[in-house]
């Protein structure tokens, strides 16, 4: 309590402020939700570890021509089936190709497929989810029936069918996996918009005559991005694993483009003797899966509005 100049009794408003507000006042500026989320993210050890792993893999993919010991075509039958050594840290395969070089370029292939598949899923799933959640009615009915048809087919089997029809190669693999993984983003976008379209700020925008498309893009979609970012991050390892699985079955990436999954398949028959042929590509796939999964889990926890 405090006494005013006129003799009345006033209330000290600072004492009613929350601890967070007092800290923000001491800092001189408010702390944004983005900064709070980043702070929570970097407080998680596994999330930081995942960020380090993914950063390392991305750097390897970007600078592959500079750090690879040889080219992907280089082979020497005189050096075939060499165990790991100082000259060949990861050994050589049956025709004398350096395994380390092929893993470096195979990592680049996996990341290209992973990010490209997510881009294809984003371009298909987000617009359909926006249309279903914003318009409703017959648009929502058609989109949801499309989703149910896609869910009825196992994704990996549908991708195998598409690759068998269109042939292998990086582009066809990206399209095949991308058109089977947009369902999650579509359903998530729709559910977010269904919860947002009745909010006060959306109703206010409608009352001012703002077009529905502008409301969706400028007001609703940014508020729905937090769960979508998490879903996109977690979709990358799924796409990497799908590509590795298709290549392992022999219907994925074609030679001479290196693929981690195909390297595992080629080395499986020699695992009893030349263990390194399957071990190192499998380790690279595991690192990519773990890195992106840790980052996705960390983002999910950091962007959870229930976190303090």
Task: Please render the helix and strand layout as text.
Elements: E1 2-3, E2 9-10, H1 13-16, H2 19-27, H3 33-42, H4 45-62, H5 64-67, H6 99-135, H7 137-152, H8 155-166, H9 170-178, H10 182-196, H11 200-207, H12 212-223, H13 225-248, H14 260-268, H15 276-302
Antiparallel strand pairs: 1-2
Helix pairs in contact: 3-15, 4-6, 4-15, 6-7, 6-9, 6-10, 6-13, 6-15, 8-9, 9-13, 10-13, 11-12, 13-14, 13-15, 14-15
Task: Please summarize what this structure is.
Helix content is 69%, strand content 1%. The chain is built from 15 helices and 2 strands.
Instruction: Give the strand line-up of the largest sheet.
Output: 1-2
Look at the structure and give the CATH class.
Answer: Mainly Alpha
Radius of gyration, taken over Cα atoms and rounded to an integer in Å: 26 Å
Distance between the termini: 30 Å
Structural class: mainly alpha
Q: In the CATH hierarchy, what is the architecture at level 2?
A: Orthogonal Bundle
DSSP strand content: under 5%
SSE string, helix = H, strand = E? EEHHHHHHHHHHHHHHH
The tally of structural domains comes to 1
| Mean pLDDT level | 82
Q: Find the count of extended strands (DSSP E, 2+ residues).
A: 2
Largest sheet: 2 strands, antiparallel
CATH fold name, please? MetI-like fold
CATH homologous superfamily designation: MetI-like
Treating each run of at least 4 consecutive H or I residues as one helix, how many helices? 15
**Morphology:** elongated
């Amino acid at each position: 309590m405090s006494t005013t100049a006129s003799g009345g009794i006033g209330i000290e408003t600072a004492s009613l402020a929350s601890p967070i507000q007092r800290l923000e006042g001491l800092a001189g500026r408010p702390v944004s939700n983005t900064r709070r989320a980043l702070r929570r993210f970097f407080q998680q050890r596994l999330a930081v570890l995942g960020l380090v792993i993914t950063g390392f893999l991305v750097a390897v993919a970007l600078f592959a021509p500079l750090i690879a010991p040889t080219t992907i075509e280089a082979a020497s039958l005189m050096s075939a089936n060499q165990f790991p050594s100082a000259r060949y840290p990861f050994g050589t395969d049956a025709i004398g190709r350096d395994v380390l070089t092929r893993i470096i370029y195979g990592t680049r292939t996996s990341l290209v497929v992973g990010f490209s598949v997510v881009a294809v899923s984003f371009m298909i799933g987000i617009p359909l989810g926006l249309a279903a959640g914003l318009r409703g009615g017959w648009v929502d009915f058609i989109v949801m029936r499309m989703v149910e048809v896609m869910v009825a087919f196992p994704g990996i089997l549908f991708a195998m069918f598409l690759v068998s029809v269109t042939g292998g190669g990086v582009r066809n693999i990206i399209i095949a996996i991308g058109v089977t993984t947009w369902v999650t983003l579509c359903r998530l976008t729709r559910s977010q918009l269904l919860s947002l379209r009745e909010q006060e700020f959306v109703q206010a925008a409608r009352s001012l005559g703002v077009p529905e498309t502008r409301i969706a893009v400028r007001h609703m979609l940014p508020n729905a991005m937090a769960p979508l970012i998490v879903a996109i991050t977690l979709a990358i390892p799924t796409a990497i694993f799908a590509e590795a699985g298709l290549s392992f079955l022999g219907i994925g990436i074609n030679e001479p483009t290196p693929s981690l999954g195909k390297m595992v398949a080629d080395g499986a028959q020699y695992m009893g003797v030349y263990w390194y042929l399957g071990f190192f590509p499998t380790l690279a796939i595991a690192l990519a899966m773990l890195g992106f999964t840790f980052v996705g889990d960390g983002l999910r926890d950091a962007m959870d509005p229930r976190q303090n």
